[in-house]
Amino acid sequence: MKTAKKEKLHKLLLSFDRGIRDYPHRLRPELFQTPMRGDWEDRFSIYGTGYSVRTKEAMEEIFEFLSSAMKVKGWNQWGRAYIEKYPSRVYNLSKIGEDFPKFLKRNKKLIWAEMARFELLIAKSFHAFNRGEKISAERFSEINERSKFEFASSTFLFESKWPIANAWKSQKAKLPSKPKNEFALIYRKSDQVFVRILSANEFKILKSFKARKNLASSLKNLDKNFEPSQLSEWLHFWLTNDFFADFSS
Amino acid sequence: MKGLAGIGLRTSHYSEIRNGNARVDWFEIISENYIDSGGAPLSMIEKVREDHPIAMHGVSLNIGSSDKVDKNYLKKLKELKNRISPFVISDHLCWGGIEGRHWHDLFPVPMTEEAVKHISKKIRQTQEILESRIALENISTYLRWAADELSETEFTKAILQEADCDLLLDVNNIYVNSFNHDLDAYDFISKMPAERVVQFHLAGHSNLKTFLFDTHDAEVISPVWDLFRHAIQTIGPRKFLVEWDDKIPELKVVEAEAFKAQKIIDKVLIERRNEDSKKRKTA
């Protein structure tokens, strides 16, 4: 008896759910009491349209640059297509756009997909839970060639065939028109997210660190133009800007 | 009576609050804005809680859904609770998703005996996992299910009783529902179990002519203030919150609304004291 009753609740909610998913099609007036004033379709529209309004707002917060660069028409069309294809499976609206880069790439919107991937990392950096303690300056002298570095949760490497990070930093809401290899690092300091454009060598070293290789191994296979004197400068910058959560000596 | 006035903590007010310009007694946070965020938002509440008590108010508990309780969500909620020690944890008596889909909305639950049992069980599990009592808020609704077997007062009271949880009484939502479903708002308040009411919510709404829409984007209207006065007279003073979530004005404007509510409480208490004193003299 209990199961049958629970199924009844489940079925009712599923009917409502279907009404939202396919809004404004497949509405079932028999599910609701007739309102005293007005018609029930007007009232149901509050629920039917609410999802797209809220997800649009949340996505615009995450993909601020991209939504401007795509212009209103493009953003509305592709944003809507995305939320129809990927109904939210997350309880938190701040995580709504996880599959947006993949969706754009599948639809051959490659530059948009790259910018979406980049802005998602910006959002992840902003929200990441970092360890409370920072590496103190007194520890810098402990670094040696066997040292391995652990990235802070808010630090992300970004590599693209398009100058995405440069476009984002320009704040002109204009996507790049020509491809150009680009390396960047997204990091958070004092709760603010920053983007650093990297040279190929700086990127290679950091990528190697990320793969948990030690300092000595990370300096192999660099481009010829690498000057060892750059390393101490970089290390100082990385350490004082909270790129790392910790390192082993 | 001090310590009752609260408003929602909103990013547009962060700098003023950080500069020590807030005059209200406490702040409410939307739990979901913080459970997955360790950067600036978390630093902000850690700063705010140095001077102000905090209430955690969620929108994703999905307690009315036929889905099971989301243990991953509750784990994160508990982590936040342990970090910021809120004076209350609340959410809504509604559902917002099913079979893992989330609509990020507050939908009405069919008010049936089966729903009472199912929801009460989920509330008890939630309270057990959180190791804390929770309060549920009565929501604004625009439609009633044909399958409803109970009135909203019967349904709410039955759940509070069976789940042994608290009530966050939203006075504006009662007013909205009384218009939308032709109910007696005063009667609703009088029938609520006062001992379970831990907080009041107040907000503005939009009038769409044939129904009212709970938009939280305007000042509280006069009939809702009257209803709030009635709630204070019948239930007694409690912590209260002015919700303003859209077209958010300056901090001082939101605070001014909270102080209107404070004045109503103070006036009711003075009237009550005068009446008691008269009675004593007569006796």
Structural write-up:
The complex is a heterodimer of chains A (249) and B (283). Chain A has 249 residues and is mainly alpha-helical. Chain A has helices spanning 2-21, 40-62, 64-69, 71-85, 100-106, 110-127, 164-170, 200-210, 215-218, 228-240, and strands at residues 148-151, 156-160, 182-189, 192-198, 244-248. Chain A has two domains: 16-127, no CATH class; 137-248, Outer Surface Protein A, domain 3. The termini of chain A are far apart. Mean pLDDT of chain A is 92; it is low at 1-5. Chain B has one domain (5-282): TIM Barrel (Alpha-Beta Barrel), CATH 3.20.20.150. Chain B contains ten helices and twelve strands. In chain B, the strands form three sheets. An eight-stranded parallel beta barrel of chain B has the order 1-2-3-4-7-8-9-12. Chain B starts with a strand and ends with a helix. The mean pLDDT of chain B is 96. Chains A and B meet through helix 1, helix 2 and helix 6 of A and helix 2, helix 3, strand 5, strand 6 and helix 5 of B.
Strands of the largest sheet of chain A, in order across it?
A: 2-3-4
SSE sequence of chain B, one letter per element: EHEHHEHEEEHEHEHHEEEHEH
CATH architectural name of chain B: Alpha-Beta Barrel
Oligomer: heterodimer
Tell me the helix content of chain B: 40-55%
Q: Which regions of chain B have little confidence, pLDDT < 50, spanning 5+ residues? A: none
Distance between the termini of chain B: 27 Å
Main sheet record of chain A: 3 strands, antiparallel
Could you name the CATH class of chain B? Alpha Beta
Helix content of chain A: 40-55%
| Number of DSSP strand runs of chain A | 5
Radius of gyration of CA atoms of chain A, rounded to a whole number: 24 Å
Count of beta strands of chain B: 12
Structural class of chain A: mainly alpha
Tell me the radius of gyration of chain B. Answer: 19 Å
Count of helical regions of chain B: 10
